[in-house]
Amino acid sequence: MYMYFEADDTLDKSMADLVSEYLPSTQGSCMTFWYHMYGDDIGSLEVFTMGSDGGHLGPAFSKTGAQGDVWIQGSADIVYIGEFKIVFEASGTKSGTGDIAIDDIDVFTRSCSDGGNPTSLPVIPMDCTFESSMCSYTQLTSDQFDWTRTFWFTNTETTGPKFDHTLGTSYGWYVYTDATSRQPGDKAQLASPAQNPTGTGSKCLVFWYHMFGAHVNRLNVYLRVSQPQMTLDNIIFTKYGTQGNQWIKAEKEITSDDVWEIIYEGVVGQSDSGDIALDDLSLYDGACPTEVECDFELDFCSWTQDQTNSWQWLRNAGPTPTSSTGPSYDHSTGSALGYYAYVNAADASTGSKARLFSPIYSDTDMECLRFWYHMYGSNLGTLTIYTEDQVTHSDSGVLFTRNGPSDDAWRFGQVSISSSHRYKAVIEAERGFYILGDIAIDDVEVIRGSCPRQGFCDFQNDLCGWSQEVVQDQWDWLRSSGATDSPNTGPQVDHTYGTQEGYYIFFDNSFPTMKVGETAVLNSEHFSPVSSACLSFWYYMYGKDIGDLNVWMAYSNGQPRESHWSLSGDQGFSWFNVQIDLSSDIEFRIQLEAVYQIVGDQGDIAVDDLDFEMNACSDIGTAAPVTPARPTTAPVLSICTFEDDFCDFTQATPSSLVWYRNSGDTPIPNTGPTVDHTLGNTFGYYVYLKSDVGNSGDVGQLISSSMTAGPQGICASWWYHMNGADINKLEVWKTEGSTHVIEWSRLGPQGPDWKHGQVSLTGSFMVKFQGYKGSGSRGAIALDDISFSTGECPSQRMCDFEHGDWCGFDQDYTDQGDWNVERDDFSPLDLTYGPSTDHTYGTQIGK
């Protein structure tokens, strides 16, 4: 008996699969079989492996065409992590009359080539920048959705990166989990190519991740070894919640005696503002650099226990076993699911000590050890930090110490460290008199340079000693750079550096689920009693929907908090400084509170350069303003895409012609656009002047709101469409008081494409777009994507064709052909002999 595939001359490319039962994971097996392929126009025989997710790997064996009227022995090396099936696949051709047969299948636990040693996997690089493809990474089917490869922005404005990590531009590619229309807890899993055992050495896995948004959930990275099940023991990296609008580097050391692969898992949060992105995945030979931070989510990182003491530090999530002491949530995630390290006072006697040692760090002129600690209970002992010289084996002496009862809160601590030799940092807990004395630590890290002064933060790297409120508010402050995602609100640059690369924090009020009165609170570290102190910071409150910004003083003894400063409403398009005198005879924290008061999405409130000094504000002096003059009118930077409405534009009344919003074609054939400019499809909106009403020469006017240019001026930019035999004229006017000046004009048909226009403007003015009706009905004039930005307009003498615009160049219609603007990956043309990338960016997305 044998199995055979009967060719069918009535079917083109008919196919049949013979599938085995599930077989156990193997690092190297040899399958042998006999096959017979005889006849006219024989098809092919291939052997694949198929995982539990249905994905095929291979082929491990392939033959095509007639092999003679004879049985031939075939073999295939099989390597697969996890349970798998073997698939024999036979395919025929429409004209074929030859059958394919197989017989005597055997599987041996050895390599086909060497008869005994496990088969090594082919070397498939793990490096991937995603610029041209997904490389060798595959989507798993055991999850709920897939990772998406993209460039530019993600689909949701309030989350995800604005550019990739590789190129640092909006034309670079990355992968991300799109949280839009997903359910909380949905997962997307991406698998690396399988790798050979690391042997006696190790590998360093490096990747860059981006987690920004109000409801970012969790990024997990798993080391999958010899089995398909994903268990906690396999997890090697995890991060929860927003990490700021930035790409962050992660490094994890890999050692494995078995074949292994990496699984990247993104988990969806409570809303679509929870995209997670990855870029620049790579694998290097050798160990990773010494870890400088630990959040205890998975283990103790590179920190080790003092084995000379029986009392040990433990990892825990949620409350500690003894009530009325210890934290109920960690600091990293602010939830009962996050982990921290603690000592359980119930496990030791009075005076017992537990020590954690850091990895060995190099000698240093100055470094800062930062950490969060929790000391709550009536019988607390002492928390002490010092360093241990690895050459002289001497201690530095106490650098930090705390003892006695405290409130149920995470507190910020930091110590500056200098050492002429290699050193270890030591975190030591000493037990108090009774069991109500649990001490916990979390988020320990070493950063270069001396520690900043207490209360200061410019938000360039993180929130410093400030932290998000966990209980009393509904939203979080977000850390970001550049412009916020909502138009006509929020800053364009930070205050510290005045650039789009500088960071600040802001309250994003654009979420549809927000309710009036909901807040976001940022807490300072704890301050000791002080007779005179000054809190200083810069705020940015611009937009028609701005709510409240409040400063409170909260007390550790539980007495009601007190208001010390408040500001409401639009304050203009600039950073402004405030200094607040404070004093207290008991320990306190400062709370920075933003309140959602007006329904709308133009109410972002930003804060930067927080500082706290132990002097009266009058002794410090007044900070210099960040701009020479405060603008008194509305936007100097905005954009209108007409997707929802006319934004702040109005129409002149009375007017013989009216601008209309439209999507797709205009009603009159052979004139007007077929798609908008913003989205480039028939669903996007633009505005246009109807050409089948009114008389020749009639005028339609679209007028901006008033605006004032700063010393850098303003660039007005727009896209226009003037196509049709009866096109008349489009003008752009600057109106300043009673003065009206034409700044730009186009007359007659300008071709079938959207074209770009811009003018540089100064002073206080309104901008008027004025279109004229032609002599017939084929004269529709359209506008889209009108924007106003700070600074002079860029030169148009250079053209990179990136926007699909010809930059003023026109086709010569007297010749025999036309030039086309193309990009390789989206081109409808078969550019067999053309370039595969553009010159500007050197990528397929460039034009």
Automatic annotation (TrEMBL):
InterPro entries: ConA-like_dom_sf, MAM_dom, MAM_domain-containing. Pfam families: MAM. Residues 1-114, 126-290, 292-453, 455-619, 638-795, 797-847 form the MAM domain. GO terms for cellular component: membrane. CDD domains: MAM. Transmembrane segments: none annotated. It comes from the Eukaryota. PANTHER family: APICAL ENDOSOMAL GLYCOPROTEIN PRECURSOR (PTHR23282), RT07201P-RELATED (PTHR23282:SF146). This is MAM domain-containing protein. It comes from Strongylocentrotus purpuratus.
